[in-house]
Design a protein that fits this description.
- The complex is a heterodimer of chains A (about 450) and B (about 300).
- Chain A is of the alpha/beta class.
- Chain A is about 70% helix and about 5% strand.
- Chain A contains 17 helices and 6 strands.
- In chain A, the strands form 2 sheets. A 4-stranded mixed beta sheet of chain A has the order 2-1-3-4, sandwiched between helices. Chain A has a two-stranded antiparallel sheet with strand order 5-6.
- In chain A, helix 1 crosses helix 10 and helix 10 packs across helix 11.
- Chain A starts with a helix and ends with a helix.
- Chain B has about 300 residues and is of the alpha/beta class.
- Chain B is built from 11 helices and 14 strands.
- A 6-stranded mixed beta sheet of chain B has the order 6-7-8-3-9-10, with helices on both faces.
- Chain B is elongated and about 75 Å long.
- The chains are: A alpha/beta (about 450), B alpha/beta (about 300).
- Chains A and B meet through helix 1 and helix 9 of A and helix 3 of B.
């Protein structure tokens, strides 16, 4: 036991005092804040106003178009938060449209009077203005706008965002004119066009609460966090094991303590480091979160702090540890098979793939946490350490399912540790070349 | 310490790796307070045997008895110091931390480890390197640190696998000196080497293994005298008649100031000495030439290799 603790202590102190830990611990929250804040910032950047020339040969559409382009933005802005939250589930096309709405920016609208000039003449003039950059876009509205094509000319036709806004404005204007022509009052028109408000509420045992997507982010962040920590610390284990093999320290270590003690000491030591880091993140996120949400609420934003049940926190803790031991054991096994970290990197691909599958399978689970699919994923070892906390965050599943998941994970971990400890004992003393899978199977059988 | 006390006993120990027999039915005793030379060519099974002695692996068949107990349990491991042939240190760890860690794995509290560490670092001349990282040390320095890690916990049995490889002559002398001090302090030392000159200087007992099997073993003196090949070096004036006795002498090899006499098989060198004295010759040197350990090594290992 004393030797085990000595190993744990060494691994823990070595990693916690390393620069990478300190930098990583500080940098990760900054980066995740960056991931959330930067897109929001980009969305809110108002680019230079787009100068639009409108050649209205119909004579009816300029006023509604310019109204739509100049005022349309306000309504869209209110929806931008919802748009961001939903964007993960949306198709690319839809996302682009939403982005266009949000990023539309300002327009400067200019009516180009046709007067007695021909359309060709005006187009030549406007083309010249496009080229000398005194105009960005112009639209030619045909006299018979109900049938003929509208035409848009621009220096840069790949600015799909501005074009989407203009197209919307044209559609709105035409729709408005059509309705006006059917003798509807403006009030009636607005009434017809008014969009509904959809508020989503979450039903839990404790009642109904408003929820506009915060919990989705929480759940996603939980999954991502577990994935990241498992992947990073798996690599750490791999590196530490390979170092002891490469430098032949294993030989000295094995003459002092049982390989099993050494391996488990290493796993527990690194695991504690991972928990320390996760703890720092969770606590600082909680403090920042509570403070940040309070600030947002004070400034009048309708937002509520996601509800964190104690069951979720305990579950997160348990499943994180289960996940850690599952993957750390695999990495230790790989470390004992290879001779350099580079070789280990190649062999580490399968567990990374497993982890990624687990992370991605969290998405369908978020959508329907109680489906059969979600159930099987949340009890399957390798995948459940990420999926089950996600389920717990959305809606507490029946207790028996959680217990079954824990039990199956424990069984998988025992099997993995049994295998890894045997391979470790032999592999750590094999120098010179990377072991093949049949060789490893032989080690396991022999020891 | 009682010289007849047995520290380590191997009985019919066999170790196989797959189809390859690394150690084949090996039996020997290591007596307490003595230096035991474990000799053999590369790949003979030395390291495989040593790994069993220090408890890294277990024999497939046969018994290992250490300090009177069967099998090498973890608590017995604490009484062994081991310097492996393939050895290393944590590159980015300070020397003091490494030695503390290795001591902790032998159940030595860090305070006690610190005291002994200071003594040993001073002894090998690396006192100023205590807080440096291993990667800052030269290979020879690292090897001395590894040696310290093998003796820091004051073990009763010290196993040194090729301890001198890679060391410069000054440090080889230093290490030999320390090994002799340890012996004087009553420690039992097993060391494996293929450097026969060093083995000859240090060892009380030896065992020679080749191709997984024991070739010969016993106290160095006995081993060497059993190899005396009836070769006598003499410096003599007169006595020519005796040297021409074909019943006694097979061959005379003349050197600058002495003769090397190869006796007939089964001839007794004492008869030659007696005959020389009786013939009235003046004898200033009469020496039975023992083969060096190197000669024995080459003879036994070479012979085996040819026969196989």
């Amino acid at each position: 036991m004393r030797k085990f603790l000595a190993v744990v202590k060494r691994e823990y102190l070595k990693l916690v005092w390393a620069k990478t830990f300190i930098i990583g611990t500080l940098l990760a929250p900054l980066m995740s804040i960056g991931f959330m804040v930067v897109p929001a910032l980009i969305f809110s950047i108002e680019g230079d106003a787009v100068r639009v020339g409108i050649v209205d040969q119909s004579g009816k559409l300029f006023t509604p178009i310019s109204a739509s382009l100049l005022t349309g933005k306000k309504r869209e802005q209110q929806n931008s938060r919802d748009a961001m939250i939903n964007s993960v589930n949306q198709s690319q096309q839809e996302q682009a449209r939403k982005a266009a709405e949000q990023m539309g920016g300002k327009f400067l609208v200019e009516e180009v009077k046709t007067g007695d000039k021909s359309v060709e003449q005006i187009r030549r003039e406007l083309d010249a203005r496009l080229i000398d950059q005194s105009l960005d876009v112009y639209v030619v509205i045909p006299p018979n706008y109900q049938q003929d094509d509208f035409q848009l000319f621009a220096r840069n036709t790949s600015d799909f965002i501005a074009q989407a806004r203009i197209e919307d404005a044209l559609n709105n204007a035409v729709r408005e004119v059509r309705m006006a022509e059917s003798n509807l009052s403006r009030e009636k028109l607005q009434d017809i066009n008014r969009e509904i408000n959809l508020t989503s509420k979450r039903v839990t045992e404790t009642g109904v609460s408003a929820d506009s997507g915060e919990s989705f982010w929480l759940v996603f962040v939980v999954g991502l966090l577990i994935y990241l920590v498992l992947a990073i610390y798996g690599q750490t284990i791999l590196g530490a094991v390979v170092e002891e093999k490469e430098t032949r320290i294993a030989e000295i270590l094995f003459s002092s303590a049982r390989p099993f003690t050494l391996m488990m000491g290493k796993l527990v030591g690194v695991g504690l480091v991972a928990l320390t880091q996760l703890g720092i993140w969770v606590v600082s996120a909680a403090i920042l979160g509570v403070y940040g949400f309070a600030q947002l609420q004070r400034s009048g934003v309708d937002i509520t702090f996601p509800h964190l049940s104690p069951v979720f926190v305990i579950g997160l803790f348990i499943f994180f540890i289960l996940g850690f031991f599952t993957y750390a054991t695999i990495y230790a096994l790989i470390g004992s098979m290879v001779t350099t970290v580079q070789e280990g990197g190649q062999l580490a691909f399968p567990p990374i793939l497993l982890l990624l599958m687990a992370l991605y399978s969290a998405f369908p689970v978020i959508r329907s946490p109680n489906s059969d699919f979600s159930f099987w994923l949340s009890i399957l070892p390798f995948v459940s350490p990420i999926v089950m906390p996600v389920r717990l965050a959305i809606q507490t599943p029946p207790l028996w399912q959680v217990l079954l998941s824990i039990l199956l994970n424990l069984a998988a971990i025992f099997a993995l540790v049994w295998i890894a400890a045997r391979a470790y004992r032999v592999g750590m003393l094999m120098y010179g070349k990377k072991a093949t899978i049949p060789e490893v199977l032989k080690w396991i059988r022999q020891s | 310490m009682n010289e007849q006390e047995i520290t380590l006993r191997l009985e019919n120990v066999t170790k196989r790796y797959g189809d390859f027999t690394a150690v084949d039915n090996l039996s020997f005793n290591v007596r307490a307070g003595r230096i035991f030379g474990f000799l053999g060519p590369n790949g003979a099974g030395k390291t495989s045997t040593i790994r069993m002695i220090v408890g890294i692996t277990a024999p497939d068949t046969g018994e290992i008895e250490l300090f009177g107990e069967r099998g090498v349990s973890p608590s017995l491991q604490d009484r062994i110091g081991y310097l492996p042939e393939e050895r290393g240190l944590y590159r980015k760890m300070r020397i003091v931390d490494q030695l503390r860690y290795f001591a902790a794995l032998k159940n030595i509290p860090s305070k006690q480890a610190d005291e002994r560490m200071d003594f040993w670092l001073e002894r090998v001349g690396l006192k100023d390197w205590k807080t440096k990282k291993a990667s800052d040390l030269s290979k020879g320095m690292q090897q001395k640190i590894q040696f310290i890690s093998a003796v820091l916990h004051d073990p009763n049995l010290i196993v040194l696998d090729e301890p001198f490889s890679g060391l410069d002559p000054v440090n080889v002398e230093l290490l030999i000196e320390i090994v002799l001090e340890l012996k004087a302090a009553g420690k039992t030392i097993i060391f494996s080497t293929h450097l026969m000159e060093t083995a000859e200087r240090l060892c009380d007992d030896i065992i020679l293994i080749n191709r997984s099997k024991m070739v010969l073993g016993g106290p160095l003196r006995e081993v060497k005298s059993s190899f005396t090949r009836n070769l006598v070096a003499i410096r003599v004036v007169g006595g020519n008649g005796v040297l021409n006795d074909k019943d006694l002498v097979a061959k005379v090899i003349e050197h600058s100031d002495e003769l090397e006499i190869l006796l007939q098989e089964n001839a007794n060198p004492q008869i030659l000495l007696k005959n020389l004295i009786e013939s009235g010759a003046t004898i200033s040197k009469f020496e039975l030439i023992e083969p060096s350990l190197n000669d024995i090594f080459i003879e036994k290992v070479g012979e085996r290799n040819v026969n196989a």
